[in-house]
Design goal:
By secondary structure, this protein is α+β, with helices and mostly antiparallel strands. It contains five helices and four strands; from the N terminus they run H-H-H-H-H-E-E-E-E. The chain starts with 10 loop residues before the first helix and ends with a strand.
């Protein structure tokens, strides 16, 4: 065969060429495979879990902070009720006027307006007995909690039609159990048991008494 003549490839050469092309195709396909490895997917999952843990931790901390603030507020409410009641149960003939003035200064709403009528029974007892009383608070507990008085969600605060000031933002009912001992010269001491329900309202950040009820 002369140099000018073309030679046809043999069947064996054709097969080898096809095998080489197939191998190259597989290599290219492997090189263009999935972009994310198992390590990358695991890292992404861990990242999502970390974010979720941070968010959960924030809400947990926020809830704990709110609970702590609520407990502190209710402690103030009970202290306010106890101090006001302490003045009432320790009222005697020697301090009746000053005690009533202190009690009146700590009231608001209907109790403030009708204070004289509400306190008349207590005043009559003190003036009649002419005794010295010493009282103590035995137990204090919050009964109910009402926030944002007379306000519907999503609406502005309407004008309050009762005698409670419209800027009173919260009301808590407090139950108190107290004991006082009245002593008269030459007479046997008398023990008086008190069961009271007081309404404590938040008026522009100041806690005041808006209701008084004797529970039998």
């Amino acid at each position: 065969m002369s140099d000018g003549q073309r030679t046809e490839p043999t069947n064996e050469q054709v097969a080898e060429a096809e095998d080489a092309d197939a191998e190259e195709f597989r290599d290219d396909d492997a090189a263009g495979g999935p972009m994310f490895s198992a390590y990358g997917i695991a890292s992404a999952v861990l990242g999502v879990l970390s974010v979720a843990a941070i968010v959960f931790g924030f809400f947990l901390w926020s809830g704990h902070r709110d609970d702590t603030g609520e407990r502190r507020y209710l402690s103030r409410v009970m202290q306010t009720a106890a101090e006001w009641t302490g003045v009432l149960i320790n009222m005697n003939s020697g301090n009746v006027d000053g005690s009533l003035q202190r009690l009146h200064d700590g009231t608001v709403g209907e109790l403030n307006t009708d204070f004289d009528a509400a306190m008349q029974p207590y005043r009559q007892v003190v003036e009649k007995l002419q005794s010295k009383s010493a009282g103590r608070i035995d137990a204090v507990a919050v009964e109910t909690v009402h926030r944002d008085l007379d306000t519907q969600p999503g609406t502005s605060r309407p004008v309050v039609t009762t005698k409670l000031p419209p800027f009173a933002s919260r009301l808590d009912a407090v139950m108190l159990v107290a004991t006082s001992v009245s002593e008269n010269a030459g007479a046997k001491p008398q023990t008086v048991h008190w069961n009271l329900r007081l309404d404590v309202v938040n008026v522009d950040g100041k806690l005041m008494i808006s209701g008084l009820e004797s529970i039998r």
